[in-house]
Amino acid sequence: MVLGARLRRLRESCLVTREQAGDAIRASHSKISRLELGRTGFKLRDVDDLLTLYGVDDEAERDTLLALARQANTPGWWQPYCDLIPDWAQGYIGLEQAADVIRTYEVQFVPGLLQTGDYARAVIRLGHRPSVEELCRRVELRMRRQQILTRPDPCKLWAIVDEAALRRPIGGAEVMRAQLRHLVEVSGRPGVTVQVLPFRVGGHAAAGGPFSVVRLPERDLLDVVYLEQLTNAQYLNKQGEVDYYRHVMNQLGITATESAGSLELLHTILKET
Length: 273
Hints:
By secondary structure, this protein is of the alpha/beta class. It folds into two domains: about 1-70, lambda repressor-like DNA-binding domains (434 Repressor (Amino-terminal Domain)), CATH 1.10.260; about 80-270, 2-Layer Sandwich (Endonuclease, Chain A). It contains twelve helices and six strands. It has helices at about 1-15, 20-25, 30-35, 45-55, 60-70, 85-100, 115-125, 130-145, 165, 175-185, 240-255, 260-270; strands at about 100-105, 155-160, 190-195, 210-215, 225-230, 235. Strands 3-2-1-4-5-6 form a six-stranded mixed sheet, with helices on both faces. Helix 2 packs across helix 3 (about 30-35) and helix 10 (about 175-185) packs antiparallel against helix 12. The relative contact order is 0.12.
C-alpha cells in the first residue's frame, strides 16, 4: 500500500492517466488501480517502467522504490495459513501487521486481538465446522496476530466494545469469565485502551455495525477503514469515507464509558457472569 500510494502520487503529478500507465506496462487500467491500492503483487520490471514513465531519474529514489517492491512481494508469516483465510480477508491481516494504530468497534464479540484462546475457539466454532487440526490452526493464527501488541514497536490498540459482547456467554460461563479477566489485564498495558459502550447510552453513532480504522506508519497514507461481512469485506480509503468513520469512532469514544469506568463495568460484569 505504501508503494502503491507513492506510485499514484507520481502518476498524478505527471498528469498520466491510468490507461496510459497501463499501456506502459502492457496491462489494463484496472491493474494500475489494483497496484495503487496495494491489492496485487508488483513485478520489478513494471515498477521500473512506471518510474521511467513518471520521470523518476534519481537513482537513490528509484532504488528505494524498487526495494519497496521487493519487500511488498515478500510473503508474510501468515502465508502458511492462507488456506484458512478468505482472499478478501488476507489484505486486512497484512494491514493489521503493518499498523501503527488500530481503532476498532465491536458489538457482538470481543475484538480478535484481545481474545483468549478458549474464547477464540468458541467463536470460530460458530462460523465453521472445522476438524480438530483446522480448529487448532485457526486459533494459532489468531493468537499469532496478537503479537503486534507485544512486539518491540507495539501497535497501539483502542478498542470500543459494546456491553452486549461482554454479556453474551460465548463458550460458556467459565470461558467468558476468563475472557473478561483477560480484558481487565490487557487494558492495563501501555498502548492498549479498552472502553465499554454500556446499554444505558441507548442509540449511538455506529448503528451500522462493527468496523476498524487502521493507521499505517507511513504518514502520507490515509487511514484504511475495514468493514467485514459474512462473505466479503470492504476497504475504504477515500478521504470523505475515512473522515466520516473517524468522526464516528471519535463520537463512540466520547459516548463510551471512560477507561476507569470501563474497568469498573468489566469487574461488575465479571461478578455477574
